Amino acid sequence: MSDAAAERAAERRLPPISQLCVGSLACAVVGTILVAARMPRDVSLLPSVLVLALGAALLVGSIVLLARISPFAWGVFRRVAGWSLVGYLVIAGMVEYAFVYDSTPGRVLAVLSGTLALFAVDVPLLLGFSVARYQLPGETAR
Amino acid sequence: MSEFAELAPTAPTMPRAAQAPPSFSIVPVQAIPIVAVVLGGLVAAIAGNWLWALDFYHVVGGGLWTGVDLFVGFVVGPIIGRMSIPARVEFSTRFMPKMLLLMPTLVTMTLASGWQLARHLGNLQAGYPHHPWLVASYIVVGVMALVAIAILEPANLAVLFELKKPQPDGELIARLMRRFIYTAGITGVAQIATLVIMTRVAVA
């Protein structure tokens, strides 16, 4: 890779995908805290659901923006995001297992599963994008 | 996780291709079986609801998480700042991949066992007298998780990929490393708050 090409890859202006992913992740954290702080009282889940919906919208927005970037180091992105997804699915799966094992009530479980799904997709997306944005398009990870 | 906070101030002067990049693996594959054993033990502790094992995982994981965070941020970081740039690069390529496996494992150990332990002891109930302390701990952990996962881990990984290149970009590495400086204070305060909260809850 030449110096000039590497500098272009590092300085290219890209859509705010990282910011959207971080916002989405923050929604997952806030949604989980809202539920956990009031357990096991039977309170409205509406605030958590609204935060979760906002997080999902931010995640979808980041995916749409990401898909429209061209050219991009998709090989590196797929490799980093793919392996991260495997790792974070294991973590999310373990937490989900604990929730199910603890007989978490259905509605609460649905909200918590939603926040876990956001977490498991957000982080790999963020990691893949954060690495691939500084690679030359068409480059593969070593 | 404020390691390498001292790298940034001088790193922009590091010329591109100042030296041949060292050979290293971004993920230390040999350590994955150890992580698997640790996580397997965690699943067994949760499934068996073994109070001692849950307490062990929570205390050991939490102690190491806090200790490593503070030690690396406030002891190792400044030492690295006084090293020569080639020495910093060599240290980083050996140290950061290990942190990539170590920290998520410690965090998972601490949080999963802590949740199950609190449930086992009835501390999750809203009627628990010290419930506000637990809610405060959720918020502190949430902030630490966001900083670690959303800000530091992507920077850590991007730096490792940059160091893999034949001609690493010193300015880019320095720019990414500045995140560690900006967040070091937040992480330090959050870890100390965690120590205060957990010791309060433990003697309650």
Produce the secondary structure layout:
The complex is a heterodimer of chains A (142) and B (204).
Chain A: H1 3-11, H2 17-38, H3 46-67, H4 74-101, H5 106-132
Helix pairs in contact in A: 2-3, 2-5, 3-5, 4-5
Chain B: H1 32-48, H2 51-81, H3 85-121, H4 131-164, H5 170-203
Task: Please provide a written account of the structure.
The complex is a heterodimer of chains A (142) and B (204). Chain A has 142 residues and is mainly α. Chain A has one domain (13-132). Chain A contains five helices and no strands. The longest helix of chain A is centred in the middle third of the chain and has 28 residues, at 74-101. Mean pLDDT of chain B is 83; it is low at 1-17. Chain B has helices at 32-48, 51-81, 85-121, 131-164, 170-203. The longest helix of chain B is centred in the middle third of the chain and has 37 residues, at 85-121. Chain B is mainly alpha-helical and 204 residues long. Chain B contains five helices and no strands. Chain A binds chain B through residues 1, 3, 6-7, 10, 18, 21-22, 25-26, 29-30, 32-33, 36-41, 76, 80, 83, 87, 90-91, 94-95, 97-98, 101-102, 123, 126-127, 129-131, 134-135, 141-142, and chain B through 16-17, 27, 39, 42-43, 46-47, 104, 108, 112, 115-116, 119, 124-126, 135, 138-139, 142, 145-146, 149-151, 153-155, 157-158, 161-162, 164-167, 169, 171-172.
- Enumerate how many helices of chain A there are, as a single number: 5
Global mean pLDDT of chain A: 87
Helix content estimate of chain B: over 70%
List SSEs of chain A in N-to-C order.
Answer: HHHHH
Q: Uncertain runs of chain B with pLDDT below 50, 5 residues or more? A: 1-17
Question: What is the percentage of strand-forming residues of chain A?
Answer: under 5%
Q: Spell out the helices and strands of chain B N to C.
A: HHHHH
Give the quaternary arrangement of the chains: heterodimer
Query: What's the number of extended β-strand segments of chain B?
Result: 0
- Note the overall shape of chain B: globular
**Major sheet attributes of chain B:** none
How many strand segments of chain A?
Answer: 0
Most residues in contact: chain pair: A-B, 42 and 40 residues
